[in-house]
Amino acid sequence: MPSKKQSRRKLDLTHLGSLNTNVTPEPVNVESEKVVESEKVVKPEKVVEPEKVVEEQPTHQATVETPVAPQAETAPVAPEEAPTEGRQFDKKPQRHEVKPLKTLASSMNSAGESFQPGDKIQLTAPWGKKAIAEITQIYQDESANAWVHYLPVEEIPPNWSWLGGCSRAERIVLAS
């Protein structure tokens, strides 16, 4: 059995370019429609041999360009006058204005304990054990929630990195 590549043949489609024939509809005669089909004579169509198309090689001759008539030239369109059919939006999207965070001097947790920057807090470290950290900043977001930013105080175990973190002030537990 031959391989697929051997059995494939290229199709010669060069003759399709010569098949552009203009067909004009014949006038319909009402009497001819009444003729029985068995009486109709079918004439074989003339078989058209495909012509070979020979592409001409480009020649390196200088061509003289004819000037375009002044009526055919179009005036350049200024960018502000260009049509905007392809544009989806008329305006650019506006960025939401970010308000600066409000820094607080102190805050309270859910147990009612008050704390301020510099106080020590106890929390769960990324490695899963309890750790001590120091509050560096207390701030309030747009929704009036108090947040605490802290940095670790204790030594970090090997193969771990911990640069600090933040938490909601109501979840903070002061270290004893």
Descriptive report:
The chain has a domain at 102-174. The protein is built from two helices and eight strands, in the order ααββββββββ. The strands form two sheets. Strands 1, 4, 5, 6, 7 and 8 form a six-stranded antiparallel β-sheet that branches. With 176 residues, it is mainly beta. Strand 4 (120-124) and strand 5 form a beta hairpin. The protein has helices at residues 4-7, 30-33; strands spanning 102-103, 107-108, 114-115, 120-124, 130-140, 146-152, 165-168, 173-174.
Q: Topology, please?
A:
Blueprint: H1 4-7, H2 30-33, E1 102-103, E2 107-108, E3 114-115, E4 120-124, E5 130-140, E6 146-152, E7 165-168, E8 173-174
Biased composition (Low complexity): 65-81
Region (Disordered): 1-97
Biased composition (Basic and acidic residues): 31-58, 87-97
Highlighted features:
about 180 residues, about 5% helix, two-stranded antiparallel ribbon
